[in-house]
Design a protein that fits this description.
The chain is of the alpha/beta class. The chain folds into 3 domains: about 230 residues, TIM Barrel (Alpha-Beta Barrel); about 80 residues, Beta Barrel (M1 Pyruvate Kinase, Domain 3); about 120 residues, Pyruvate Kinase, Chain: A, domain 1 (3-Layer(aba) Sandwich). Strands 1-2-3-12-13-14-15-16 form an 8-stranded parallel barrel, surrounded by 8 helices. Strands 6-5-9-8-7-11 form a 6-stranded mixed sheet. Helix 2 links the parallel strand 2 and strand 3. Helix 10 crosses helix 12. The longest helix is centred in the first third of the chain and has 18 residues. It is elongated, with a radius of gyration of 24 Å.
């Protein structure tokens, strides 16, 4: 692996929406990761559904070296596989199937054929009842349950022409008796925490109890993100948002189990609810999927990315496009261009301004709302926050201001986590002991990193006594000298 040895500077992103890039075989080396960073990636995702733990460890090490060279906090998300259900194998690797024919899913590990295949998840046999639908291979094959036993389920084939080895299984409309953390996830979680990721993404969450277990295991060593990919989770949306630090709209499996026309509605509902709670939300899956093999996206894909940006999502995500695609850097570049173009549209700002959520009746929320208004009225170069835990900066991001948010913190872990949030440029700075010192440092930093130039104004929020967590009660307008 070739390691860059040079210092380099990334000018401030000219957009508020963040880009998450998934690393994989097409983007594992330090040079490739640096190219993604330069193209516009703000956050890197490690997909623990693929790759060995040692491979992910090496990617984290490469990111941290680049972080030091660029002097820029970088967030890393470890995405756990979760209880992904899959069928077994076939004698010939695949089998032709016919609509209207019977098909059995059973516990026999022997390779399958056109009449049966192994389903190595006995808990499903107890959960399924006649009339339930089973979707295989992302919905390309649909079965309907006609009968069941302790070690099998009988179905009739409703649609589909062929099945191949280890395709995924989805069971819409049924809460499965499965925990969101498998034994593999527990091993992966421990490893990811050991090598210092910033976010843990929890897959296939169905109910609040799944999050409580993960929260206990994480133990505050990383922020916890809940992936919404099971329709059952939508019945507990408010509770899940409250328990999580951030959310991901994972439209892959969600789109399999929901009717297609329901997915955009669910996405909009989720994004609005998470924004209202003041937590970061990612829109993910198949955003520029054609770029796995093509140098440009379809117009529909460009529109899909734009829709997520118009909705005010904190981040949009690339999966296989950057992990295994032929054009990973180009995918990030195009996503960056789409986001920047949308954010220049006057309609984008009007839409966000119409969706500003009313502040809570606290001094901190009142000051943060006033900071947004002051920055807009004055044309300020940035809103400045000082935070230890991140809560002050998250409140500012909730307001979706037109100005970027310059977050000053002495906590490196906080800075990294906040790089996922809308409009935030986090800077790790030695501890600050007074409001005046904070203002002076903010002006110098805003100028040095290109957020502001001499003669521009900053809107600065803080608390008195200075440095008291959750005590934001002061707003000041500062001039950059």
């Amino acid at each position: 692996m070739t390691e860059p040895q040079h210092q380099f500077t990334l000018f401030p992103r000219r957009r508020h929406t963040k880009i998450v890039a998934t690393l994989g075989p097409a983007s594992s080396g330090a040079a490739e990761i640096e190219a993604l960073l330069r193209a516009g990636a703000d956050v890197f995702r490690l997909n623990f559904s693929h790759g060995a733990v040692d491979e992910h460890r090496a990617r984290v090490a490469a990111i941290r070296r680049l972080e030091a060279l660029a002097d820029l906090p970088i967030a890393i998300v470890a995405d756990l596989q979760g209880p992904k259900l899959r069928i077994g194998t076939f004698v010939a690797g695949a089998a032709a199937i016919l609509e209207g024919r019977p098909f059995r899913l059973d516990s026999d590990a022997a390779p399958g054929d056109a009449t049966r295949v192994c389903l190595p998840h006995p808990e499903l046999f107890r959960a399924l009842a006649p009339g339930a639908d089973i979707l295989l291979d992302d919905g390309r094959v649909r079965l309907r349950v006609t009968g069941q036993g302790s070690d099998h389920v009988d179905t009739v084939i409703l649609s589909g022409r062929s099945l191949s080895d280890r395709k995924g299984v989805n069971v819409p409309g049924i809460v499965l008796p499965l925990t969101a953390l498998t034994p593999k996830d527990r091993v992966d979680l421990s490893a990811a925490l050991d090598f210092g990721v910033d976010w843990i993404a929890l897959s296939f969450v169905q109910r609040p109890e799944d999050v409580a277990e993960a929260r206990r295991l994480v133990g505050g060593r990383a922020a916890l993100m809940v992936k919404l990919e099971k329709p059952a989770a939508l019945d507990h949306l408010d509770a899940l948002i409250e328990m999580a630090d951030g959310m991901m709209v994972a439209r892959g499996d969600l789109g399999v189990e929901l009717p297609p026309e329901e997915v955009p509605v669910a996405q909009r509902r989720i994004v609005a609810a998470v924004r209202r709670a003041g937590k970061p939300v990612i829109v993910a899956t198949q955003m520029l999927e054609s770029m796995i093999s093509a140098p440009t996206p379809t117009r529909a894909e460009a529109s899909d990315v734009a829709t997520a940006v118009y909705e005010g999502a904190d981040a949009v995500m690339l999966s296989a496009e950057t992990a295994a695609g032929a054009y990973p850097v180009e995918a990030v570049d195009i996503m960056d261009r789409i986001a920047r173009r949308v954010e220049r549209d006057p309609g984008y700002r009007r839409g966000l301004d119409m969706e500003v959520f009313p502040p809570e009746p606290t001094s901190a929320d009142a000051i943060t709302a006033a900071a947004r208004q002051a920055a807009q009225t004055l044309g300020a170069a940035a809103i400045v926050t000082y935070t230890t835990s991140g809560s002050t900066t998250l409140r500012a991001a909730r307001e979706r201001p037109a100005a970027p948010i310059l977050c000053l913190t002495a906590n490196t872990a906080t800075a990294r986590r906040l790089m996922l949030s809308y409009g935030v440029r986090a800077v790790v700075t030695p501890d600050i002991h007074s409001f005046g010192q904070m203002v002076d440092r903010a002006c110098a930093l805003a100028k040095s990193i290109g957020l502001a130039h001499a003669g521009q104004r900053l809107v600065v929020t803080a608390g008195a006594p200075f440095g008291t967590p959750g005590n934001t009660n002061t707003l000041r307008i500062a001039w950059v000298g």
